[in-house]
Amino acid sequence: MRRRDRDAMVGAAVLVAGALLLSVAYGRRMVGNGNGNGGGYVVTARFSHAGGIEVGSPVRLSGTKIGKVVAERLDKQYRAVLSLRLVGGVQLPDDTSAAIQTDGLLGPKYIELQPGADETNLKPGGEILYTQDAISLQRLLEMVIDRARAKRGYLGRPLPRQM
Fold first, then answer.
1. Is the pLDDT of residue 102 over 90?
2. Which residue of 20, 98, 112, 142 sits 20 to 30 Å from the alpha carbon of 162, by its own alpha carbon?
């Protein structure tokens, strides 16, 4: 066998093996994280401010992805109602809470679930009643500035000019 033919065969084998690994990894991710169409169950959660969360955003428990946001709508009080598809193997207590968190300071947002201690579990179609809204970076900076001004005695008054 000539060297050129052998190199072509090795290259083709590497491409086939890479494609096979990618398909297995993608298929496992779809099944393992509850993103498939057949598995899991859906619950809802209401937030006053769900900025940064959209359909496809991850849902995590103890930092591990256990689902994703599959729908969003507004209720009559103009609150964001998010539908969360969770993997079937994860049973959460009725008093589970949901908080919108951020990966790092400016990273993407996700929903972090914190299980409670209730004896009964959330049922498919149930609602997570305890929620914490997203905190915007702008509001957080305003709070820090207001606190610093209050500590110096300038809350509600203009800062003195330096000449």
1. no
2. 142
